[in-house]
Amino acid sequence: MKNYVVANVSLKSQTTIKYAMKMLSSSSETIIFMFLGVSTVHDEHEWNTWFVLFTLLFCAVYRFLGVVVLTAIANRFRLQKLEKVEKFVMSYGGLRGAVAFALVLLIDKNLVPHKRMYVTTTIAVIYFT
């Protein structure tokens, strides 16, 4: 939305919006990672080495394949093409931990008896990326 807002907002308002958004994003990120840290130390975990390793492997492989395929499609229509370094950064840092962590915490333990293993694996993937 930046391209549309810049033309319709004064310079003072642009500065205010910019720093307000930075403050909100930093505050949100701090709260999320504090909650993640508390959950790492406080919760009971169920560790399964093979499940964690295969999850990390599959996340990396499918993230890489998804980025390569989608950027190849996008580059056909872009004037400024995405380079290999940009693709690498997108594939390594593509999945944000907050969404995955929030979703795994919503799992009902009555429906999924291995919820603790999923939480542990999700935390491992977040720390890896």
TrEMBL record:
Q: Which domain of life is it from?
A: Eukaryota
Q: Where is the Cation/H+ exchanger transmembrane domain?
A: 7-129
Q: What's the protein name? A: Cation/H+ exchanger transmembrane domain-containing protein
Q: Where in the cell is it found?
A: Membrane
Q: Which GO terms describe its cellular component?
A: plasma membrane
- InterPro entries listed in its UniProt record: Cation/H_exchanger_CPA1, Cation/H_exchanger_TM
Q: Which UniProt keywords apply?
A: Ion transport, Membrane, Sodium, Sodium transport, Transmembrane, Transmembrane helix, Transport
Q: Which species does this protein come from?
A: Darwinula stevensoni
Q: Which residues cross the membrane?
A: 50-77, 89-107
Please name one Pfam family that this protein belongs to.
Answer: Na_H_Exchanger
Per UniProt, what is the membrane topology? Multi-pass membrane protein
GO BP, sorted A to Z: regulation of intracellular pH; sodium ion import across plasma membrane
Q: Which Gene Ontology MF annotations are present?
A: potassium:proton antiporter activity; sodium:proton antiporter activity
Keyword Transmembrane assigned: yes
